[in-house]
Amino acid sequence: MDRRVKVFLTIAETGSLTATACALNITQPALTKTLRSLECDLGAPLFDRHARGCSLTWAGEVLLAQAKSMQRAWNSAKEEIRAITAGRLDTFRIGAGPAYHPLIVPQLLCRLTGEFPETRIEMDTGVNDSEMPKLIAGDIDLLLGSLDGQPPDNIERLWLLDVETAIYVRSEHPLAARDDIDPLSLSEAVWLVYKKDDMVHARINTYLAAAGCRETRIAVQVGALTSGFEIVRGTDLLMSAPRQVEAIARQYGLVPLRYAETIWTFRSGACFRNASLAYPIVRRSLSLLSDLCAAPLG
């Protein structure tokens, strides 16, 4: 990719000529010369300089969208060529949401480690909002989570399962024995939330608002699903998590609440860069995931 475009993208990201020079390991005079060359070719200034750094001009905004597309195409071409010449990934990185990482991904990794012994496999937990930029940048190779919205350029998707939001409490909780939990009861309760999945809790609040109830009151936020289960089993807190992890929740003495209508169900699956399909481990992962998600969990 044109070095001038890389310089432009880095300035746009950092908002600083000094930070860009440091990031690209070049002198600031050389950086300024490169930027001026690009602006001369385009016939318009790309940045406004001010005391706090640099901000994009209208021309810079126009170029930014195209430059990002060029960068994705360049990275995609490099990855595909590397896959064809190398034939394998040294490290295979997976990002997985809460419907996948407790039960499905461990089964996947058990199979992959036996079939691809020369590849190191890493898993990170998170949801699409935080993990999709990593997938686009090439920092992870496979993302398992929500399929909401349109995929970015060069990202392919495979539907695997529909995820239903469930609400878990300890088995002795006053609401656990009821068969008709209403929105008011959920609104009046105190909650623990999985902080990596703000979208689910926002959907619950939308459900409550539609019934004329106030938003939920959050007492605890956790970064690990099982930590949340451990806390909930010793308190009267409510916690939302996918129906797919019910078997694990029950191991902690938790049960899903029963209510008349489903709060939220969404499509989920695998997201991956189309160039990465050249790697056998990516293709095999998608095949195994299709089988694992079709089998009963627990």
Automatic annotation (TrEMBL):
Pfam families reported in the protein's UniProt record: HTH_1 (PF00126), LysR_substrate (PF03466)
Protein name from the UniProt record: HTH lysR-type domain-containing protein
SUPFAM superfamilies reported for this sequence: Periplasmic binding protein-like II (SSF53850), Winged helix' DNA-binding domain (SSF46785)
Database matches in InterPro entries: HTH-type_LysR_regulators, LysR_HTH_N, LysR_subst-bd, WH-like_DNA-bd_sf, WH_DNA-bd_sf
A GO CC term attached to the entry: cytosol
Zinc-finger recorded as keyword: no
Limits of the HTH lysR-type domain: 1-57
Keywords from the UniProt entry: DNA-binding, Transcription, Transcription regulation
Organism: Phyllobacterium brassicacearum
Cited PANTHER family: HTH-TYPE TRANSCRIPTIONAL REGULATOR YBHD, NITROGEN ASSIMILATION TRANSCRIPTIONAL ACTIVATOR-RELATED
Family membership: Belongs to the LysR transcriptional regulatory family.
GO molecular function: DNA binding; DNA-binding transcription factor activity
